[in-house]
Amino acid sequence: MRDVEARRERAAAARRARRLRPAGSDDLGLRRGFAGKLLPFLVAAMAFLASLALAGAIAAAGFSRQWQQGPAAALTIQVPNPSAKATDAPQSRLDRVVALLRGSPGIAQVRALSHAEIQKLLQPWLGSGATDGLALPAVVAVRERDGGPALGVVTAELQAAAPGTLVDSHGDWTRRIATLAHSIQALAWAMLALVMGVATAVVTIATRAGLVQRRDAVLLVHGLGATDGDIARRFAARATRLAFLGGFGGTVAALPVLGILAALAAPIVGGIADPAAWMPSLPRGLWVGLVAIPVICAGIGFATAQVTVRAWLRPLP
């Protein structure tokens, strides 16, 4: 009973002291701690890396999705001797292939490339004018419809209509791109988790260093009746403020880097190539994540400081 009454008296004395204490007072001297001065810079570095890791994960997911909806969803069909006609059919080989594809329920779009377009595609490898006089096959770009027939069925029908027709579904490239994108995503999320773990360790070390530096003041205040929760709140408030400032600074420092990367990637993904207009090119999910990083840093600072201080004070009488 005496212990319970003593704790109640100490808690009441602490509440009275908080009411009489001026706003913004620092009776524990936490602002003079060296760890408090270093903490924002360390958290800023972690926030900078977290911003880049988050951008990498979102960019990999977007690139994979764009590939699945773009080249991976298309077929390239090559028709040798496209103008040749069979004796029993008035249509040329190319016309028969296009008609068959347009009549298939699984095909959403069919477009035969012109001779100029085929030359433009081959120019980087063969050079300008190298295809003059060559018997080039016709190329048909096809986009499949979801739920259509299997590729093997369409290929068999094409072979029957125009023997020697080649169908390229980009399957190998699709699998490789998907594997690469998933690997980049996994590495980015792992890096983000590692950065958060390091940030937690940094706040823990800084808080324990502050406890050691202000040990006498903490013990004095604790002996005068301050509760563990009151002391933990002081350290947590300081760590939360410094962690938020560091997270905000690190995120802002990452914005120019993300802008440069977005401008460089814009020609590839079809975005905005003007470096002065890079902000609209960043995904909305990335903006949400960037705004959340300082808040997460503040939450890590608050929770870590609370746990560290309470664990340090628990053995005290």
Give a summary of the structure in a few sentences.
The protein is α+β, with helices and mostly antiparallel strands.
The number of domains is 2
Distance between the termini: 16 Å
Unreliable stretches covering 5 or more consecutive residues: 19-26, 271-278
Q: Quick check: average pLDDT?
A: 76
Describe this protein with a few key phrases.
317 residues; alpha+beta; 2 domains; 4-stranded antiparallel beta sheet; 4 strands; 67% helix; rod-shaped
Commentary on this structure:
The structure is a single chain. Strands 2-3-1-4 form a 4-stranded antiparallel sheet, covered by helices on one side. The radius of gyration is 33 Å and the shape is rod-shaped. With 317 residues, it is of the alpha+beta class. Helix content is 67%, strand content 7%. The chain folds into 2 domains: 28-68 and 175-313, no CATH class; 81-164, no CATH class.
List strands and helices in order, with pairings:
Layout: H1 2-20, H2 34-69, E1 74-79, H3 93-102, E2 107-112, H4 115-126, E3 138-144, H5 151-161, E4 166-168, H6 171-213, H7 215-223, H8 228-269, H9 284-313
Antiparallel strand pairs: 1-3, 1-4, 2-3
